Amino acid sequence: MTITESTLRRPAFPDYAFGFAAMHDAMRRDALRLVAALDDPSARTTDRRGTDVPALARWFDRFEAVIEHHHHCEDDIVWPGLESIVGRRDCGAAGTAFRLAQRDLLDDHQELDVAMTAVRTSLHEASTAIDRVDAARRFASCLDEHLAREEAAVFPLLTAHVSEEEFAVLEHAVVGVTPLVAMTFTVPWLMDDAPADLCAKVRDGMPTPIRLVNRLVLQPRYRRLIAAATGVRQS
């Protein structure tokens, strides 16, 4: 099954969790971009050591940071919050599936850390024996398998047993521990190649000054990084 197919076949989720699902879509998208960029015969294989980090490595550094922060928020905020909800009410099969999946999801995060370290090392260290394309493919496969397991356990629980207000409390806590510098990448990253309705929802949630900064500064800067790193040019 390809990453795109697994996205299409995932369980349904409530509309209020669109941001959570969009994060997964963006992760899958960029895992594919990484593999495609490294599979390109014209992809750079040497780095300008001592002066600059290649664009692909700079881009992956930001992408990796998004995933790491997302996983820390799940481990420290989202999973305990959902476990509390499961404990307060009878969630049936969805609750049981979530309880059983939690340890596997935590293990997945550790495996993804190892996979991302291999990719990062392959991009930044010219002397490494790690094959860049193989590392990227292993990372993409590991990520896709993890997201599929997570969605199978979490989305049915959200749909049937978690209210919009309860989920909003968890989202607010996540936003509260997200550094501003991380948001300057995450916002345009989340909207990249996303459906118009998703982009509208993200924009509607921004204060007017942040919306202007995103349009005038963050989006152009992000587009330049993507173009330099992967050759994807956006209008």
Explain the overall architecture:
The protein is mostly helical and 235 residues long. The protein has a domain at 17-178. The chain has nine helices and no strands. Helix 2 (18-39) packs antiparallel against helix 5 and helix 7 (180-191) crosses helix 9 (208-230). The longest helix is centred in the N-terminal third of the chain and has 34 residues, at 55-88. It is globular and about 55 Å long.
Précis, in short:
With 235 residues, the protein is mainly alpha-helical. The protein has helices spanning 3-8, 18-39, 55-88, 92-124, 132-161, 164-176, 180-191, 196-204, 208-230. The protein has 9 helices and no strands.
Could you give the topology of this structure?
Elements (H helix, E strand, L loop, with lengths): L2 H6 L9 H22 L15 H34 L3 H33 L7 H30 L2 H13 L3 H12 L4 H9 L3 H23 L5
Total beta-strand segments: 0
SSE order, one letter for each helix or strand: HHHHHHHHH
* Largest β-sheet summary: none
Radius of gyration, whole Å:
18 Å
Number of helices: 9
Binned strand content: under 5%
pLDDT < 50 runs, ≥5 residues = 43-53
Helix content range of the residues, please? Answer: over 70%
Q: How many angstroms separate the termini?
A: 31 Å
Structural class based on helices, strands and sheet pairing: mainly alpha
